[in-house]
Design brief:
The chain contains four helices and seven strands, in the order ββαααββαβββ. The chain has 176 residues and is α+β, with helices and mostly antiparallel strands.
């Protein structure tokens, strides 16, 4: 198999090149599998008990879906009930502020510069939502919580811009 080589003042095991290459291949394969599992898990790696991180993971997943599947399929998914998980959901709005995708269709067509400009406390969160960049932005306001019979609840939304679209998801205070 191998032989001991001591010609340079130290002992060294000389392994056949094929064995070394096989070991390198196994290491690279294990690293690639680890990376793929990390990427594939998306929101599974973020825990709902950490709401800020989970909201960011939902938005990252939405942006990845958009880049992978395109605009039409992405909007169709986020306009469906399948995209909602209790108080957790992604919504999409365009660069004019109009909501173009949300599981609860009553908000589709409403605009952050008009109907959704201010929350119940008078805070103008709508225009703030339109200042998000590709790096993302947190915006906090009061909004209807679908997980609590639409009660007005403080909400913290992570929103990211991609092209002419904004992807948002957030959490409501008091929800575990």
């Amino acid at each position: 198999m191998g032989r001991l080589n001591s010609d340079k003042g130290g002992l060294q095991l000389a392994l056949p090149i094929a064995m070394k290459q096989g070991a390198v291949r196994r290491i690279l394969l294990a690293a690639a599998i680890g990376l793929l599992l990390t990427l594939a898990c998306g929101t599974e790696m973020a825990d709902k008990s950490d709401p800020p991180r989970y909201a960011q993971a939902l938005v990252n997943e939405a942006v990845e879906r958009y880049e992978r599947d395109g605009r039409d399929k992405t909007l169709a998914y986020y306009n469906s009930q399948a995209s909602q998980d209790g108080e957790w959901y992604v919504f999409v709005y365009d660069d004019t502020g109009e909501i173009i995708a949300r599981f609860d269709r009553k908000f589709v067509g409403q605009n952050f510069n008009r109907e959704l400009r201010e929350d119940s406390n008078g805070y103008a969160y709508g225009p703030e939502m339109l200042t998000a960049t590709e790096s993302g932005k947190w915006v906090s306001y009061v909004f209807e919580n679908p997980g609590a019979n639409n009660a007005l609840t403080p909400k913290h939304t992570w929103t990211v811009r991609r092209d002419d679209l904004f992807f948002g998801a957030g959490w409501y205070e008091g929800i575990k």
